[in-house]
Design goal:
Length: 223
């Protein structure tokens, strides 16, 4: 009989090693992955095991296979799986409360570190995101993507990779909460102004003001 436990370990190991290859080679969405044969040789595993791992990633929408071209990395944030997982996670009110609480802790720490570590490159990106968000608001749209990107650049400007890695899935899974918040009448314009206040406080290097502005913004966003 086939040892399913052993197969599972091989399968999981391949997925972890694939992730390492993607990181080592700095592969981005749209980039081509090594071929099945190459992965089999590099990872010292059978091609059938590699094929199984790739099939799982494709079912999850993380990669795509193009006939005659190869296998390519997709952007995980375009995947509906995140929304589906989030809807299940947030069914439990206690989990939802804990998620919101943890996000506040991380965001307030991030904005404080950003006051010390943000560079002009980060501020240029913040301004670009805010300009794009305002254009969408003026067109009557809800800038969900720009809202995410603004908070992400703050997390990145903290220059704490662990903080950013913990922050990212929390915000992904709380997408429904953000969408409900931004859908409230008048909220998108108020949120945009709050983002500007947070950015300017970070630019000043005023940690207390930045934390206070971010706390108000998060409280208003999570009502």
């Amino acid at each position: 009989m086939e040892d399913t436990s052993s197969n599972r370990k091989v399968y999981e190991g391949i997925l972890l090693q694939l992730n390492e290859i993607i990181a080592e080679e700095n592969l981005r969405p749209g980039d081509k992955l090594p071929s099945e044969r190459e992965l089999s040789d590099r990872l010292c595993v059978g091609r059938s095991s590699v094929r199984e791992a790739l099939r799982a990633l494709e079912l999850l929408g993380l990669i795509e296979t193009r006939r005659g071209e190869g296998t390519f990395l997709k952007h995980y944030r375009q995947n509906r799986l995140i929304d589906i997982l989030g809807s299940y996670i947030l069914r439990d009110s206690k989990t939802k409360k804990d998620l919101v609480e943890m996000r506040k802790i991380l965001e307030l720490d991030a904005v404080q570190l950003a006051c010390r570590r943000a560079t002009q490159k980060h501020f240029d990106e913040m301004e670009r995101i805010l300009d794009t968000a305002w254009e969408r608001i003026e067109q009557g749209e809800v800038p969900m993507e720009e809202d995410y990107l603004f908070h992400r650049i703050i997390a990145r400007s903290s220059r704490n990779s662990v903080l950013h890695r913990i922050w990212a899935p929390l915000v992904e899974y709380s997408g429904g909460i953000r969408k409900d918040s931004l859908s409230r009448e008048g909220r998108v314009r108020n949120s945009h102004q709050e983002h500007i206040q947070v950015m300017e406080a970070i630019r000043e290097g005023n940690e207390q003001k930045a934390v206070d502005y971010m706390k108000v913004h998060l409280d208003n966003s999570m009502l």
